[in-house]
Amino acid sequence: MDLNQLKSFVAVAHQQNLTKAAETLHLSQPAVSAQIKALEKNLDVQLFDRNAQGMSLTSAGKVLLPRAETMLQQMHHLDSFAQSIKNDFHLQSKVGIIQMLPVPFLTECVGILQTEFPHIHQSFSLGLSGIILNQVKQRELTGGFFVGDNPYRNVHTVDIMPLKFEVVMAQKWLGHFENNQKAMQQLPWISLSAFSALTRFTQKIWRQWKVTPTTALQCDDMYALLNLVEAGHGVALLPSHYLDVHAQRDAIVRLPEIQLTEMLSFIYAIDLEQDPIIEAWKHTLAKVTQRIEQM
Question: How far apart are CA 4 and CA 21, in angstroms?
Answer without folding.
Answer: 13
